Amino acid sequence: MVEAVAGSLPEPRRAAFRGFRDDAGELLDEGLLLWFPGPGSYTGEDVAEFQGHGGPVVMDRLLRRFTGLGARLARPGEFSERAFVNGRLDLSQAEAIADLIAAGSDAGARAAMASLQGAFSREVHALVDALVELRVYVESAIDFPDEEIDFLSDGEVVGRLRDVRERLRAVQRTAGQGRVLRDGMTVVIAGRPNAGKSSLLNALAGEDTAIVTAVAGTTRDLLREHVQIDGMPLHVVDTAGLRDSDEEVEQEGIRRAWTAIAGADRVLVVADDRQGPTEEDVRILAQLPAKLPVTVIRNKADLSGTATGFIDDPERPTVILSALTGAGVDALCDHLKACMGFTAGEGTFTARRRHLDALERAAAMLDRAVQQLDQGAGELVAEDLRGAQEALGEITGAFTTEDLLGAIFSTFCIGK
Amino acid sequence: MDYPERFDVIVVGGGHAGTEAALAAARTGAATLLLTHSIETIGQMSCNPAIGGIGKGHLMREIDALGGAMARATDRGGIQFRTLNARKGPAVRATRAQADRTLYKAAIRSLVENQPGLTVFQQGVDDLLLDGEQVRGVITQMGLRFHAPSVVMTVGTFLGGRIHIGDNQHQGGRAGDPPANALAEKLRARPFRVGRLKTGTPPRLDGRTVDFTRLAEQPGDDPAPVASFMGSRAEHPAQVSCWITHTNERTHEIIRGALDRSPMFSGDIDGVGPRYCPSVEDKVVRFADKSAHQIFLEPEGLDTHEVYPNGISTSLPFDVQLELVRSCAGLEKAHITRPGYAIEYDFFDPRDLRPSLETRYIAGLYFAGQINGTTGYEEAAAQGLIAGLNAARGVRGEAPWTPGRDQAYIGVLIDDLTTRGALEPYRMFTSRAEYRLLLREDNADLRLTPVGRELGLIDDARWTAFERKRDAIEREQRRLAATLVRPGDVDDAVGQRILGGPLRREQYMDALLRRPELGYRDVMALAADAGGVDDPAVAEQLEIQAKYAGYLDRQREEVERTRRYEETAIPDDVDYDAVAGLSTEVRQKLASHRPATLGQASRIEGVTPAAVSLLLVHLRRGDQPAHRRSA
Hints:
The complex is a heterodimer.
Chain A: H1 2-6, E1 16-21, E2 27-36, E3 47-51, H2 56-68, H3 78-85, H4 91-115, H5 118-143, H6 156-175, H7 177-183, E4 185-191, H8 197-205, E5 223-229, E6 232-238, H9 248-262, E7 266-272, H10 279-287, E8 294-299, H11 301-304, E9 309-311, E10 318-320, H12 329-340, H13 346-375, H14 378-396, H15 401-411
Parallel strand pairs in A: 4-6, 4-7, 7-8, 8-10
Antiparallel strand pairs in A: 1-2, 2-3, 5-6, 9-10
Chain B: E1 2-6, E2 9-12, H1 16-27, E3 32-36, E4 50-52, H2 56-65, H3 70-77, E5 78-84, E6 94-99, H4 101-113, E7 118-122, E8 125-131, E9 134-140, E10 145-147, E11 150-153, E12 162-165, E13 168-171, H5 181-188, E14 194-201, E15 204-206, E16 216-218, E17 242-246, H6 249-257, H7 263-266, H8 280-286, E18 294-299, E19 306-310, H9 318-326, E20 336-338, E21 341-348, E22 365-367, H10 377-395, H11 409-420, H12 444-454, H13 460-482, E23 484-485, H14 492-499, E24 507-508, H15 509-514, H16 520-526, H17 536-547, H18 549-567, H19 584-593, H20 598-602, H21 609-623
């Protein structure tokens, strides 16, 4: 595994500079590689330590690379546990291990909870329910062949299986974090002319990308900027001010602005804090697509004198800032990170990585189940469904065979 | 009086658990006594006259692979053989046989009577002989004392048995047999946790009063599958068909109108019945929208007209039974030969057993069969075999043996029972086995016969036959992996027929066999002079192992991952309060379930992976003598 990623093993216990590559040989990151062959390592087993550049995106790619090669994420305290079990820790150190495992599992659980809230949780649970229902059909067809419920041979299972697979894809999409992690979130800056949209882009980008003047309608076309916030990629799109205009070029810019908005993950609607919400601001907000997340930016706080910061209104999160002085821009960055799911630090990141990993494995199993169903091997379909459920069980909690049998007996009248 | 001879192992009960226990103990060389209240009922099928089925057929093959009697008796008593799930894949494929009760019983009795080292005595047992917490033998109803350091209890539904027919109740262990109440009292006085379960049977019918012309026929498979590795089709007696009819709306009305007279619904029965084998009144109430339920009319034997209508187990009063039976197609004039009944009985919480099936409270005392909360002949026989084996090993001071969940359904069964207990009568299903693809009927011999041989359960004849098959498989596997088929070897017409065209490039035979569409015979037919084996059982193994290789490897990897936990034993005297970091809930769960290994602990509901890690750390700490604190 180490060789696949980093080319070759370095000399034991010597740091070596290496490129870390994906399966196509593309460079993912560069960094230090340390190789500790067992038993001369912390855990007593072979240990490789990769020191990369950090940042969630790069880290995520590396982790995906390793899980793709068959690795799994360690449980909380697992390294220490292994070290202890392999006799690498003395007894006084061992006293601390139990506390570490207990504390780690609490922290892990909290992080998992934080990552498992809202729509994602609901969708995963609904998906698991659908999968259970499907398994009930398949397993009862297997365990009760005399019961006139042979769903494997009728179309029922095919339809349900395809349905579950679609739903899983939808969960992966809406969980969205996978894509956001890889590709970054697209944020469109919109608002009426001269509210300070381009200044905001510049504040986020940290350089003069957009031409900023006091003349309304300066930005005629879309300006795109790729921004990193603490390693999180962000595509920021600055748009033409949204107003009725007779000028053809400006009209075209406004049309493009609406197209950009349609493809956005989030819209920042910039308003001038001195004027309060104007009629135009209200109209723009009303015109935005209903499901599109929106953050209101009350700009020019340096002129209005309002205290900068974030107002955590779930209906309409709002940031008060000054794009010109930079005051309050930190609050916006924190808010955007939170939107991408990176609030609670490393714990949440790993928890989410686990979830995405579980979803990916479940998806692979379901794909194979579809193939197996085509070839008619009922027990292999059942095996892949079991695997998919076990993967999802890592997110929602275990589902035992007793649970499955209970579901079977309450669904069908079984028994001679 | 004290019986003059001493025994190594005493088995109480001559049912499916008792006979396998006694036979297994004797096979390993233990001087064994089988005590039964009636020699006539040794090997009796108290419920429906069938052996095998999904999950159960797997158990039967495993018992057979360990040298047991069940499959051998099935080949001699089976009057209709079928392979269920034939098209759903080899792992869930299962053998089921209708058995002639008399022939089956005779076959079992003959195996028992001819087993060297096994003695039979007819007498009910009233009490155990104990020396502190160690069993020393048993006392029979007439006060006879038999001495042995190991006793296996296989008393089925006879402990505190109570039979219900409508509002009519009486004590009984089975229709026509007395219960074992004195023994039940004595055992209840020990610290075992006792529960109450319920099961039922349908009324039996006189086949001469059934109009078979109105029923759907269900013939056996032709050729019939063979149950035992050592069996053959030539042993099978004459073969007959089963018949299928259905209940209907009128049947359901009759039942609904009489529910107030059903002990199931009037509150007379406290025992918990199985969800997968509900009484017909239960079916009608719980699945009210279903307008018909199947009834399988199973012949009881070749020399009797009695028919077992499988699917209408009931404890309704007799007049209702008669009316509901006669409302079904073909049964309009049916005569009931014996009324159906429900039976409630005591069982002992199997969490008080070790995986060897020895009780935790009395050394040398083993429980097997329905006493542990299971249902089914195969489940009983499987436990009997393991209990008898371990009873004999215990006497010789040898370590007990129980297969793992990855090794056998027997392992799944015993692990489920001793880890989770029984909330309803426990029956085997293939969905209970996480390593289902590894645990197939077709490889039961390969999985278990070698270890059975080491344990002393396998005689020379079976071992020789087994080695022949195993060697043939291995030899042929090596040949397939080393033999190339070249495009030039394949005749055009043959290629067209088997591959749908010419072979495009040279390939090893095992690679060809991995193609989903090619069977072993196809691969052999591709090239002239390809050779190959004739034994269909060998060819089947080659095919399955080639085609399922990916899935089987994955399951084996899964097994390997959990091995460390499965192999870490938890001592009996572990103090869960002393394990740092466990929540109170987990502590209580562990204390009440008393898992034998970390693997078992991890399967208890509510025990988290972190809790298992904490337990592991605690156990390893105990290993290190430097850490021993003053007590």
